[in-house]
Design goal:
The chain has 291 residues and is of the alpha/beta class. The chain contains 9 helices and 10 strands. The model has no long low-confidence stretch (mean pLDDT 92).
Length: 291
């Protein structure tokens, strides 16, 4: 039986929407539309110290202004703490995870977690997933297939933080399963999270989506664009120009005569091709590309 396509865009509310995250939003949106599937927005607000007030609402408003309409109500990870705790409890009871009292200072020189607390029965708040000694193959729909030796390359990793907050890896896995996500489209900065998430999905008995990682957008100095600052053109572009720029960077070439935003989206959905996405975005400058 065919599983209907469900994709998502999952920004953290740590600032305004910027061009780098818009590329992930556009790519995930077009993948969903080309597959006649659904596209969802999830705000990953599980790290209160890093959040900026009003950021979540601003991101959702910007997406709507740019023509990126979700098929369901926006979801918020902060509403799902009970599900994360349930998953951690299951992993602890089944001996697939353990409590850890190690500090960052203690581990600063260790390439991977050395297993200090693996066999101890602690009351510490932090929880780590036990990683098996085995290979894990990560197939990407755009990037090169990668092989990971879990114990040597990754090691036991945190799934519940010492400050009593769910870790990113756990929350993403639990939510992707709950939302029925069939494909994850995101930036290459999260590519090394994929083996952790695949292994965690195995441990929890959850379905595994496909993964597609687009390249990172950098400025002329090779620095990742992560804020809507002076070298990010998104804050000075009209919606149609912003989407045209995103499409160009993603290797799609919309006709210049299309000046209407809705018609531009119609063209993009009809002509979207993953194989046209470059493996690397231009690093010299993004000025002049549709600006």
């Amino acid at each position: 039986m065919h599983t209907p396509y469900r994709g998502r865009f999952a920004p953290s509310p740590t600032g305004d929407l910027h061009l780098g995250s818009l590329l992930s939003a556009v790519a995930s949106y077009l993948q969903a539309r080309r597959h006649n599937g659904q596209w969802l927005i999830r705000i990953e607000d599980i790290d209160p110290p890093r959040e900026i007030h009003g950021s979540a609402a601003g991101i959702v408003k910007d997406l709507q202004t740019l023509g990126l309409q979700a098929d369901e109500a926006v979801s918020y990870q902060s509403n799902n703490t009970a599900a994360y705790r349930q998953a951690v409890t299951h992993l602890l009871v089944s001996a697939k995870a353990f409590r850890c009292s190690c500090s960052r200072k203690q581990l600063k020189n260790a390439p991977v977690y050395p297993g200090n607390c693996r066999k101890l029965q602690l009351d510490a708040c932090a929880v780590r997933l036990k990683v098996a000694t085995r290979q894990l193959t990560v197939i990407d729909l755009l990037q090169t297939t990668r092989e990971y030796a879990l114990a040597e390359n990754i090691g036991d990793f945190i799934i519940w933080r010492a400050d009593d907050l769910p870790a990113y890896q756990l929350a993403v896995v639990v939510d992707d399963a709950a939302m029925g996500i069939t494909e994850v489209v995101r930036g290459c900065d999260l590519q090394d999270s994929t083996p952790r998430q695949l292994y965690l999905q195995e441990c929890l008995g959850l379905p595994q989506p496909d993964y597609l990682h687009i390249p990172l957008l950098t400025d002329k100095n090779g620095r990742k664009l992560s804020k809507r600052d002076n070298d990010d053109p998104l804050n000075r572009l009209q919606p149609q120009a912003a989407i045209r720029l995103a499409l160009q960077l993603l290797g799609q070439q919309p006709p210049l005569e299309i000046s209407d935003l809705d018609k531009l989206w119609d063209w993009a959905i009809a002509h979207w091709q993953v194989r046209n996405i470059p493996l690397q975005f231009p690093t010299s400058s993004i000025r002049g590309l549709g600006c």
